[in-house]
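JOB MANIFEST
job_type = single_chain_structure
chain_count = 1
residues = 198
[input]
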Amino acid sequence: MPKLLLATSNPGKIKEYRFLLEGLGYQITTLTEEGIAKVVTESGSNYEQNARLKAISYAKLSQLIALADDSGLEVDALNGEPGVKSARFAGEAAIDAEKVSLLLARLNDVPWEQRTARFKCVIAIASPEGRTELCYGECHGMIAFEAKGKNGFGYDPIFLLPETGKTMAELPLEIKNQISHRVRASQQARQVLQRHLV
């Protein structure tokens, strides 16, 4: 069974991708399991550049097919911020709760109808020879007035899905994994990975 390297050290992402890419015919492995300590800096100016940079770097390093993503939260009232800087919005070492607090503070006086937002995800799949394919996913919602829920990670506790009346972090994983931006990009990624096996 060929190996597929998940090019992330984010435990939340690893857990989701293991679930989303199950049954594809790959042995899913991680940077830690492969003994890769090198950190690839996300120096791109958009999701596509960052995802491709990570996937190509780790595919070459490991000589495995590598899957990397870059994703972010875009808030309309903040002109699309934090966007590509979502992970570093409150500083390099900030924990999720600090990022959420900062975002809520920036939206303090913004009324409900102007709190529209979307999660975006771009997945890059790279071969050791440097061939890459990109997959895209989006999920639209609103920014809640306070954090709710213990599931998920990142901005999930304040990303409210109007059709459910719940934040992403209040949903069970199996529901989140039907509607999230990462799911939508993963559905395309599954097709790409199946082609690699043929």
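[summary]
Residues 64 and 128 are 6 Å apart (CA to CA).
Strands lie at 3-6, 27-30, 65-75, 81-82, 116-126, 132-143, 159-161, 166-167.
exit_status = 0
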